[in-house]
Amino acid sequence: MFAAHQITLDDLLAVECVTSVPGALTVLYLMSRGFSFVLLPARDRTAPPPSVPRFCRQRLTVRGGLSADAAEISLLHPDTFLEISRVADHEPAPNLADRTIGHLFLRTSGSFGTPKLAVFTHDQLLANSVLSLARTRLTAHDRIALPVPLPHAYGLGAGFLPGFAAGASLRLIESANLLRYLEHERAYRPTVAFLTPTLCAMFSRHTSAQDHYRHIVVAGDKLKRELFEAAELRFSRVLNLYGTTEMGVIAVADAARTDGPRSATVGPPLPGVELRLDVPELAAEAPTGAGVIACRHPHGFEGYVEGDGRPWTGEPPLRDGWYRTRDLGRLHDGECLEVLGREDHSVNRDGRLVMLAEVERAMERLPGVERAITVVGRETLRGRDILAYCSPCDGHELEAARLRNACAGVLPAYAIPDQIVITSEIPLLANGKVDRRALATAAAAARPSRRPNEQGTM
Amino acid sequence: MNAKLTGTPTEVSSQQPAAIADIIGELKRLLVEDLDARITAEMVTDDVRLLESGLGLDSIVLYEFITLIEKRFGFEFADQDLGTEIFENLTILAQHIHTRTAQRLRAAAS
Roughly how many angstroms between the first and final C-alpha of chain A, as a whole number? Predict the structure, then answer.
């Protein structure tokens, strides 16, 4: 099939990958043959299709298994699940000439534009992946449920590749939701599952214990204690994991240990991974004892390239091998890492990092908006609520509902503030900076949420 | 893995009892008014698919919908009852809710 499309090892490929066996086979094939490729999320009806970087010559699309014609898919015939097309505006990137073989480009999150790409060699990614086995203790006897996306660092590097390397059985669950997960759970009786906090909250709605589980692994924002306890009743044990696209898994709790601060922390760093806690930029606003987590990893990424393949022009992400995560953390007993959030006014929403400063800048470009200040509100299944305080330009009147609709034109759906408050005066501190703490306090006092059905804790 | 249709909903809708029609009406209201999912009344018909090719409810909206149903109709879905079949469309879902609420009423009466 590759020969028919004149694909050679020198071609950089873009792969739109669904979380399915055909998706996994495609990734394994490309890695085993040494192809360099960019991993893109599967197309989803609710979002525009992912843009294919122009430096890729061909686009490979793995067909979803939930469509009406899914029955035609045969693993023996790649043409039943793989579509190959030329990238129309292809333009080679000269700076990538030495990376056309054996590299993987992973999209990072955190900006609304074209995301920058983290570059790994296949060898480093594989070495990175198996490192976590020392803690997750996956074996050939495990049945692993993977309802998290395969084309992301967590699904691929923490779930799929280690499970595959351990010889475990794997169940890839496409477009996972509560209904589909429960169906797979009944049929497959997993011993291990890799979840996000949102999936964990949804699946722990009833705490009926399922005794086939050994443990689940959860990555992302820290679970509240009540949810951690409910999840331990249902899944027998919860292993908190911490990692980044750039460094892969940094720390994860040990499946064999029952002691220690398991609910609050993500365990000690993996063998060979060094941690450092730097003084935060806004030290006064950080929790006691917290520092910015910097990490040196024996099998981390090589560096960034821009989303279009051009050389990265931002700050060098690695200094002496150290990568500054911008996450705040502190150590318990000098060993176990607790992750406390971000140092840079950003929140996780729908699994994507939203920089609040970017939301503010986008809103300030809307007609009639003089100033927009955002603060984070309570926790919901989608992440933290975003509240925006907006002051009108002189001579303009703003209306909250209309402003919120206008946001849809300048912000992706997951970054639109949940609530907008129109105010003529934004509170300022003596030094002239916005008093965000006063706004957050005011926001917390004036709830009724737009969504009364949501539960902050579960 | 596949959410295949188990019945033909259009056959049912022409002869559904008033109770089912009421439940469908209430479910439509929950979808359009109570969920923040940009679903309009025109999009919601008795037999539109709730997942994928139909309304395409994402995992969180679907979860919120399930929670709202439980609150509104006063029962909890057992995990073993939850699957893609009963959430195929509003007609099938309303029949399931009708059965569950009728059971509850009978249990309360006896």
Answer: 49
Name beta bridge partners: A216: A193, A238
For helices A356-364 and A400-407, angle between their N-to-C axes, nearest 10 degrees: 110
Q: How far apart are CA A201 and CA B42, in angstroms?
A: 32
Q: Nearest CA to CA, how far is A405 from chain B (Å)?
A: 11
Q: Which chain A residues have a beta carbon less than 8 Å from that of B68?
A: 453
CA dist., res. A274 & res. A276, Å (int): 7
Cβ contact B56–A45 (<8 Å):
yes
pTM confidence score: 0.85
User: Which tens digit of pLDDT belongs to each residue from B18-36?
Assistant: 889 999 999 999 999 998 7
Test the B interface: residue of A179, A233, A381 with most B CBs within 10 Å = A179
B86-103: pLDDT as tens digits? 999 999 999 999 998 888
Let me know: does A248 contact A300? Beta carbons within 8 Å.
Answer: yes
For residue A19, the distance in angstroms to the closest alpha carbon of chain B comes to 12
Burial of B12 (0-12, 13-18, 19+ CB in 10 A): middle
Give CA–CA dist A48/A312, Å, rounded: 25
* Residue A206 with chain B: CB contacts under 8 Å: 76, 78-79
Report which secondary-structure segment, H or E, holds A227. helix A225-235
Distance (Å, whole) CA A96 – CA A90: 14
A71 touches chain B (CB under 8 A): yes
**Mind listing the pLDDT tens digit of every residue in chain A (458 residues)?**
888 888 999 899 999 999 999 999 999 999 999 999 999 988 876 667 778 999 999 999 998 887 767 778 888 999 999 999 999 889 999 999 889 899 999 998 766 667 899 999 999 999 999 999 999 999 999 999 999 999 999 999 999 999 999 999 999 999 999 999 999 999 999 999 999 998 999 999 876 888 999 999 999 888 888 999 999 999 999 999 999 999 999 999 999 999 889 999 999 999 999 999 998 876 666 677 889 999 999 999 999 999 888 999 988 999 999 999 988 899 998 899 999 887 777 888 877 888 888 898 899 889 999 889 998 888 888 888 899 999 998 888 899 999 999 999 889 888 999 999 998 888 887 776 778 778 877 777 765 444 433 333 22
Tell me if A244 sits within 8 A of A250, measured CB to CB. Answer: yes
**What is the spatial distance between Cα A407 and Cα A397, in angstroms, rounded to a whole number?**
16
Which residue in the block uniquely carries the two structure tokens 């996994």? A24
Reported ipTM: 0.84
Supply φ then ψ for residue A67, to 5 degrees: -75, 170
Which of B36, B78, B87 is opposite residue A451, by nearest beta carbon? B36
Contact B62, B26 (CB under 8 A): no
Query: Would an 8 Å CB–CB cutoff place A405 in contact with chain B?
Result: no
**Four-point Cα dihedral A171, A239, A205, A17, nearest 10:** -40
Tokens of A247: 């460094």
CB contact under 8 A, A179 and B82: yes
Query: CB distance from B4 to chain A under 8 Å?
Result: no
